[in-house]
Amino acid sequence: MSTSGTTTIDHKAFFIGGSWRPADGTDHFDVIPPRSERRVGRVPAASEADIDAALAAARRAFDEGEWPRLTPAQRAHHLTRVAVGIERRRAELAEPINDAVRIANDSELGLDGSVFTADAADTAHGFEVARRVRTGTFSVNTFAADLGWTFGGFKKSGLGREHDPGAVEEFLLTKTVSTDPGAGLSAEVTQGVPLGTGPGTHGPVK
Questions:
Q1: Is the pLDDT reported for residue 48 higher than 90?
Q2: Contact at 8 Å (CB) between 19 and 132?
Q3: CA-to-CA distance for 176 and 195, rounded, in angstroms?
Q4: CA dihedral over 43, 49, 55, 59, signed as positive or negative
Q5: Residues 90-132: pLDDT tens digits?
Q6: How distant, in Å, are the alpha carbons of 53, 66, 79, 84, 174 from that of 63?
Q7: Bridge partners, residue 109, by sequence
Q8: Cα gap 13→57, rounded to integer Å
Q9: Which 3 state secondary structure label does DSSP give 189?
Q10: For residue 104, what are the CA distances in angstroms to 93, 114, 123, 126, 129?
Q11: How far apart (Å, rounded) are the C-alpha atoms in residues 36 and 198?
Q12: What is the DSSP letter of 151?
């Protein structure tokens, strides 16, 4: 079934021995991924009979199936095919996201951006995109921006940052004062002033 664009699981059987087998019991439990902490479905709770059936199917597969009779090289071949298939599928799923990031970064501007995930409670993928898009501000599952934090742009959207403690540094000038390192410096001069740490940058404090 599908709700608000999110596919949910609703099983009443177990896949055992190559086919779906109705659950022996009537108990069910919700499936809640720890990352999103949001219910994604409901599945049956396995009874002792369900577990026994699964173990018996596994035993038959090992005793009568092809896998135990394969050589190590043949097993490696099949496992490699599985790994290649998983990687190909991962790349297929990532391609639309990669295209979106590329299009966003091709712009000569970079002031603000946003992304909305399929599941609003799962922001992890949104933050992955936020790290890759070159804008000064980026929102996940919202258009709101907190102007109490750093604000500024990338590329032709400007240099510098506003609205955070570090922004005041944009308006400060630094000055370096040098003297004879061998002459020493009085405490009155050095009080509250950062001193150089390189060799010969200052003599003893008087």
A1: yes
A2: no
A3: 10
A4: negative
A5: 889 889 889 999 999 999 999 989 998 877 766 888 888 999 9
A6: 15, 9, 20, 28, 79
A7: 155
A8: 15
A9: helix
A10: 18, 10, 19, 14, 11
A11: 51
A12: B
